[in-house]
């Protein structure tokens, strides 16, 4: 029997960091992998749809603009990892806000961050099942023809995804996720590359859709109101598609202290954002060139392509495997938050603090904490059940992303930067930063409005426990 407190024993010599915790081993490569895992999701395959709503000019400009904004604000957040007074570490986004801003803003940050993280884990459960359903449907279409009615239930896949997450959720903390993130990054590159390759093949064949500088045409592709709402939603999708601020501080907390964490994090952010921007532009623009204004919401799971079916199967398998790993990247901060609170409130509880050394087949000796086992298993079961009951939750996730993008990606990093650098009120720099905050607030509000309209449509079409046709 071993208490968690032994991990923080300064007498452990070289195995601890300056804060007494287990020595961090994160590097530029692992941080970049975490960022790519967090940023490049299956949403990259929906960017062709987003470009179709906005057109060549606005779509491309918005993609590049929000890449720059996200990188810029991420460098501000990276500089805030250490507290302004003694340079002590801040382990979570809430800790950073507490150190620089304090007050009610700490609670608002926690609400936005953990609300988003819970939403994302539920959304990943649904998206992974949709990708696995697409494999079954691709095989069905190949055997029976593209016009066949191929109905597949996604509930067994959600249950399987949940069982896998129950096992993976016993990984003790974020520091042990590096291998999963590197694997997930490889998977995301794989399916994004397949999507790009199939789009290039379609363009080369000459069988392309109609594209315009302004995207979908009112009166031809959409009506006037749909054009407005879908443009808002597409802008919000692009803005939030880069947003990894909700896990940036937790990623930075995995880095070794030399060279300085903020310098490594900035390089990792540049590498991550640059890589994802290249893939986003390729997927969005080449996908739009292939499908035109009728681009599907996701050109792999919505069957923009039917053949070669085996390649579609492989790409969708890569999506599911990526989401299995990405779930943990977004769930671990939730696990750590609850466990840290419980450890502080009930430090004498053996159920919460004690760990038991067990010999597991293939894994060897492994430390089991009963509270971690029960609580994390319960969380995974809850998110899986919610995903099963509300299969339209991805529409809700769009709304959560739109609402949380502004405070977590823009407002808090800018406010903390102003506090840290003592930027004078009404100076040119201060005015420029406030204009950036205002612009992104407007984008968030418009995106939220578009998401609400899309959510209403999804709810109207909702059929509980219905197979995916």
Automatic annotation (TrEMBL):
Amino acid transporter transmembrane domain location: 25-456
Stated family: Belongs to the amino acid/polyamine transporter 2 family. Amino acid/auxin permease (AAAP) (TC 2.A.18.2) subfamily.
GO CC, one annotated term: plasma membrane
Name used for this protein in its record: Amino acid transporter transmembrane domain-containing protein
InterPro entries: AA_transpt_TM (IPR013057)
The organism's place on the tree of life at top rank: Eukaryota
Subcellular location: Cell membrane
Keyword Glycoprotein belongs to the record: no
Region (Disordered): 1-23
Keyword Ribonucleoprotein included in the entry's annotation: no
Molecular-function GO terms, alphabetical: symporter activity
GO biological process: one example: amino acid transport
Transmembrane feature ranges: 28-47, 54-73, 114-135, 177-201, 268-289, 309-330, 373-390, 396-414, 435-459
UniProtKB keywords: Amino-acid transport, Cell membrane, Membrane, Symport, Transmembrane, Transmembrane helix, Transport
Main localization (coarse): membrane
